[in-house]
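Q: Can I borrow your eye for a moment on a structure tokenisation matter? Would you mind producing a protein record, from residues through to fold? Write it directly below this note and I will take it from there.
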Amino acid sequence: MRQRTALVIGGGIGGLTAAAALHRSGWTVTVLERAATAEPDSGAGQRAGSGAGIALAPNAQRALDTLGAGDAVRAMAAWRTTGEIRLPGGRRLARTDHAAAARRFGGPVVVAHRAEVWSLLAARLPDGAVRTGARAALVDAGDPGAPHRPARVRITGPADGGEELTADLVVAADGIHSAVRRTLFPGHPAPRYAGFTAWRFVVPAPDGVRDAHETWGRGSLWGTVPLSGGRIYAYATAAVPPGGRAADDERAELLRRFGTWHHPVPALLAAADPAAVLRNDVYTAAAAPPAFHRGRVALLGDAVHPMAPNLGQGGCQAIEDAVVLAHLAAPDADLGAALAAYTRQRLPHTMDVVRRSARIGRLTTWRSRPACALRAVLMAVTARLAPDLMLRPLDGIADRRPPAGTYASGTRGTRTAAQPKEHE
């Protein structure tokens, strides 16, 4: 049997997971990455891996178990105890129990350095599988029912005028503003601005800074999470118009917005390199797409279901997409049926995650003093009287398991009777 070929457009976390999962399944895979170097993707289109962390909940870890990578991710965990939710002046509203989340969802949330997760996935691909400096444009989506009509992709680089490649399958992991999605579904609404912008950076941990916290202000939020290797991942959001940039630099912008907040926020900002602070407007899917596939092309991750970061599920859902797609599109499977099943399984679930994330994201944009005071009271009362209620937004998400039969030998992924019907 001829070995099937796949082209993956986009070399971020979702694209590399898809490539590794398809390669493990027996496909010949090439990743087409437009950046000039194969450095880790920081997400949202900026390629500066030094500035970003990524949250990997138990559902993503179990999906990575299918590639034999889950335990390596678990070993990256530096935050293993409790965290706090605070107000800008330092008052604690609630304490988050890491152990309670682990009991509820079958494991802890791991916040890892994005560059290290990228490298872990890249190591599961053959040498030369990632082709850099390759801008890819879909020419023809192909027809899975017609062997003579593969998908066609044109790539252009700085030194040539274009080259056309064909493949049995194209996986579009080309991000929020996906050109492939626009080609497949030209009438579908573009992602909409979620109402806030995000900043991210990673710094060595200042003395005494070891705990995780999230602080909610008026139309703004700050988060601090320990990473392995004595580092801190900091993130912030603010309800501002889209498309803005600081007149000086983004660290200076953060100092103006958060410099008077409680310790350790000022210390983290003092340690940040202005050139390493990432700023991205946050976008979310405006509507469910008609499908996650067309012809021989499958859309994945932010390319098809961009979401607000407030549940920490953007990368997790891309990883799930990749593992489910590779499982369904086994080399001997009917590709048309496999892609239809991929849409059927992933579209309803991921759009539910999009909606849940958007609801929490909207809470962070509240600016009026009465509304923010009410929000603080509700957080404090909920944490005291019904602490598990704060975990409920992740029910049915963080506790999910990959499809049956996908686990790598010897990993933790033993199938249980609680496995969701989606993957039956």
User: Anything to note?
Assistant: Residues 5-78+110-189+286-362+393-423 form a domain with the FAD/NAD(P)-binding domain fold (CATH 3.50.50.60). The two ends are 27 Å apart (CA to CA).
